[in-house]
Amino acid sequence: MSFNQSRQGLIHTLLHYLRAINAENIKEWKIEFTYKPDFVRQFIEPFVYLFPYFLYGFALLGGRYSEHLRSITGISDMVAYTFIGYLFIGFLNTACWAMGFSLRKEQWFGTLETIFVAPVPRWVYVAGMALHSTCHQGLIMLIQAVAIATFFAIVLHMSGIFIALLIVLLMLLGLYGLGIIVAGLTIALKQWWVVSEALSTLIVVVTPIAYPLAVLPFVLRKLSMFLPTTYGIIGVRHFLLGEELAIALPTIFLRLSLILVVWLTFGMIVFLVMDRYGRKRGSLSIY
Amino acid sequence: MVGSGEIVVDGIHKVFKKGKPDEVRAVDGISFTINKGELFGLLGPNGAGKTTLIKCISTLLIPDSGSVKVGGYDIYREPLDVRRHIGVLTGGERSLYWKLNPVENLRYFAALYGVPRKITKERIEYLLDLMGLTDKTRVRVEKLSSGMKQKLSLARVLIHDPPILLVDEPTLGLDPYFARFIRDFVKNELNRKLNKTILLTTHYMDEADDLCERIAFMNRGKIEALDTPERLKQSMPQKQVLEIKCQGTLEREMFSSIEGAASINISHGDGFAYLRLNTDNPEIILGNIIELVRENAKIYSVRVTVPTLEDVFVHLTGASLKDG
Lengths: 287, 324
Fold this sequence. Notes:
The complex is a heterodimer. By secondary structure, chain A is mostly helical.
C-alpha cells in the first residue's frame, strides 16, 4: 500500500470516527428532548445549587464584598469569585458522570452489545458522550453566566475571554482523561458510581471553587496540583476577574499540558485494559 | 483443522468463572465452517452456548482459545474488519433506541457503520419499504409492536449491507404472523435473493428444519451432531415415532423398562402433555404404553409419525430442546 493510499485510508477512518462521535452527540440530544421535565430541570438546578454558596458567603462576610478575600486573592467580590468557580462543576459532571455513565447507560437501554458490534473503537462512544455533555454543560453554563452576571452586575474582563477559553479547552481535555478512566471502570465494576461519587467529591473539595488554594491544608493543596480543574479555575478567574495568580501563567500552561497528556494516556490505557477484561470475562452482559 | 469458508471456527473454548465452583464451560472446543451463501443453523436448548458462540464470532467476547475467521478476517487481530463485514441481530427488541423513531435509529447506525451520507437516505427508505414500515417512519420505537420492532432490528442489521449475518433467536417471543414474516424474509430475501451467509441460532426445531441447509446440534457447549436436517433425521436408529397427547402427570422413568422404545421425551403445551418415543415397532409396544399412560393421565390422541429434529436431539443428548 502506497503512502498516499494509507494516508487516504487514515483520513477516511478519522472522518468515520468523527461522524460516529457526532451521531452519538445528536442521538443524546434527541433522547434528552423526549424527557422534557428532566431537560428543563437540568437548566434550573445549577441556579438552585449555587444559591447556598452565596448565602454562606453573605452570612460569613456580612455582605457581598470582603477585604480579607481581596487580601488573599486580589478580588473583593465574593459573588463573582464563587460563581466563576462554581461554573466548573458542570465540566466535572461531564467527566465523572456523563462520560463515565455513557456505556452503563447503553447497557440499561439494552443497546450496548448492538453498538459494540459496529466497526468503531469503543472509546468513540465515550468521546461522543463527552462532546454531547460538553455542549450541554456549555449551554447551561453560558445561560447561567449571563443570568448571574446580569443579575449581580458582575463586570467580566472580556479582553481575556479567548485565553480563558484556551485554558478551559486544555482543562477539558485533561478531564476527558478522567472521564474515560471512569467509563473503563464501569465495564468491570458493578457499583461503578462509587468511583464517580468519590472522584467528583474529592475534586470538588480540593479544587478552588469557592475558596482560594491558600486556605487548603498542605496535603490537599499538593493534591490539587494534579487536577486540571485547579489550573482551569485559577486561570479563568485571573483573566475574567483579575484574580492574582497563585501560580505563574507559563507554569499553568505547562502543567495543564502535562496533566492532559498524562490523564488522557492513562485514561486510554485503563479503558482499553478494562474493555479487554470485559470481553474476556463477559462482564458486559452480566449486570 | 477446519477448511476455508466465510465463517471458520476452529476449536474455540470459552469458560466463565474459571476455577470457581460455579464454573461454566459455555463453549467447549467447537469447530465448524460455514460456506459463502449458506444458511447454517445452531440448534440447542437455552444455556447450550449458542449466544456465547455468536458473541465470540462477533468480537463481543474473546474466546479462551481456538481461532475464528469471519470473511477472511481474524477476530483477535482484525476485529474492526470483522465487524464491518457482519450484521448481528441479537438482544431482541431492546437493541433499538425506543425514544427515537425508525429513521433516527437507522440514521444513527448508518453513521456508526460509516455508510456514505449520500446513500444513507435512500438505503433507509429502501429498508423501511422492504420491512413494510414506511407508515411508521416518524413513530417512536416504543410505540411499535414487538414484531415491528424486530422488523426494524432487521433493517438496522442490513443498513451497511453486510455479506454475513449472525441472527440470534430471531423469532423469540413474536406472534405467529411476525415469526412467519421473519422466517420467510431470512430464507427468501436474505439468503436466496441476496446470497447472504447466515448463522442462525434457535431453539425452535421447526424454524431450523424449515430454514437451514445444515444444522449443528449444540448442547452444554459442544456440538453433538452437524449435518443437513434430512441426514440428521435419517441417522435415527428407529424410523418411527409414537406420539401420545394426554392430560395428566407423566414421568420419563415410567416408560424406561419398555423394550423397543428409545429416546423418550415428555413435553408440555396448550394444557396437554405430549409423550414421544422412538421405535421400529409401534404396533408391538403400543398396548403397554397406553396401559402405563392411562394409570396417570387421560389420553386424547395417539399417532405414529416420522422422527423430527427434536427426536434426533433427544436421541443424541438425552435432553429436550425445551430444557434449559
